[in-house]
TrEMBL record:
UniProt domain THAP-type: residue ranges: 1-77
PANTHER family given in the database record: SI:DKEY-56D12.4, THAP DOMAIN PROTEIN
Ligase is among the record's keywords: no
Signal sequence coordinates: none
Protein name: THAP-type domain-containing protein
A single GO molecular function term of this UniProt record: DNA binding
Superkingdom of origin organism: Eukaryota
Origin species: Patiria miniata (Bat star)
Cofactor: a divalent metal cation
Pfam families in the cross-refs: DDE_Tnp_4, HTH_Tnp_4, THAP
The entry's keywords: DNA-binding, Metal-binding, Zinc, Zinc-finger
Amino acid sequence: MHCAAASCVNNSKYRDRLIVMPHVIELQFHKAHAEDYTKWEKKLDKTDYRVSQYTRICSNHFKYGKPLAGSSVLTLYMRSYPDWALSRKQAAKEVAAVENGLICHALVHVCKYLDPQTTTRLAEQLRVQPGKNSDCIFQKLLSMSSTEARQLLQQVAPIVPGGKCLEALHIYRYGALCEGTGWLSAQFQPTKVDSVCANKRKDCNPYSIPAFHSYAKPETFKQSTEMVHCGHQCNRKEGVAWRKHNNKKQRLTAVECKEEVLYENYFHGDSTLRETQNIQLSEKITEPESALKCTQQIMKGPKVSIESIKHSDELIQLHTGLPSYQYFKWIYKEVDKASENMKYWHGNGSEKAKKYIETNQKKPGPSRVVSKENELLITLMKLRLNMMEEYLAYLFNVKQPTVSSILSTWIPLLSHELSGLIYWPEVEEIKLCYPDCFKRWPGIRALLDCFEIPTQKPSHVEANTQVFSSYKNRATTKFCLACTPGGSISFISPPAGGNMSDKEIVIACNLPQKFSPGDKCMVDKGFLIKGELLEYGVELIHPPFVHKGQPFTEEKNRLSKQIAHARIHIERVIGRLRDYKYLSSEIPVSQLDLIGPAARVCCALTNLKSSVVGKS
């Protein structure tokens, strides 16, 4: 049994491959009623396709996870699933690989949806006293070390119902809520567990993790309609309630039913309920004004800042990719002078020089909304985590255009100021750090390779042809990277379209001119640049090719393994660049002018880390 939606690959024969979205508790395959055949055919939008009694649609495509009266039409994921949608088995593996700073919160999020028996066994394993509520279990989970939490999450994740692992993965891996999915609530309220943890632990997450969200489940909808007893007619089988108004029936939603019940209970029910609510209201009104002012001040400030995370190297590495706060201070010191009178980018016309810049005077106008240190933090968080601009604006209590202006200004500034970290060393300097795996080929100056970054497909046909990569089978931006035998990045080319070959990029960026006569260059088989390097007296080292009619000898096989053993270091360098999610996520067409400076900044930051090559 398979789903008939064009974008869906769910098949009941392959349970491990099923994609279960977060709003679904149990994935099922549903058939349409005869009166809904025409509606389903319009939503499926398939040529010459007719819905029949054998047509099945999985729960992912219904608003409430199943067809209900009034909501039996397909509405969700009819074109395609989002990029973060994974199979249930894969989501269970990925959620256990969340960063150390958030692994405990992801574990709490997943454990909230365990069945009572499993929760009881978990409490016994954690040695929580019987009879305690779930908050005690969650506090115990939050106090666990990252290693223990990861091991427990690997055991618990496969048995969590529905798409809750996918939900936790999306929230705690990407650091932002998905907009427009129709299933996540846009509330960011700290949970009770978070508030208790904040008082007892100083190493908690500096900003509030989103609370456990309430979803529009069919069970909740039925409960709200079964509560109606004040003259409403309720059809429990269909989960729909009506009320009479001017002798006419009106359909009630779940929220309207709840409001009607509260209204009837308050004004026509027992007076005890009114007295209790009045007492609670009076207690809220008589709270100290100082607490209210303190709360208002907290809400006005940013949820995260450099001051709230600088005490923890783990949090610094999570948010910025830097090893510690000392590296952050050094980078800020390097760009502080250049950022005093910099002009922020606000669209066309921003490149014109201002009078205060030419005369080297202090920038006029109002003071900064965000400090320069936090602006640097916003930029590094964008490169490291690739958070949405709207979510960064929420975290720093500013507006989205402000974040966009900060990124458009700071990324080129960092690219210019930190370009000295990408250094083409001399031969004598390379010999100071020359690993043993390169001893067979003395005099290697650089290792070359290319990497591609996915980009949004341009609407113009000619532009799409230039950026389409036949290797990745999509639109990409391509860079040529060179690193020394010691593992430091020594060169990165300007961005090029994915349609360019490795040879064309090397020639276009004039890379052969950087070599000296007698140098050696190690590449992969795709770099057919032997003739171009010979003009400068450079020897090319590459794995041996297999020629037609000639056997691949044992000596060639041994040489190929030795070259691969040495070339793996540049692959590891590219892997470190991929740790910056901005370089591994799809870049919109509107940000293609920033992709080159962003890649140079990431290369410079990568050179600040320890070498990927072990000590000789």
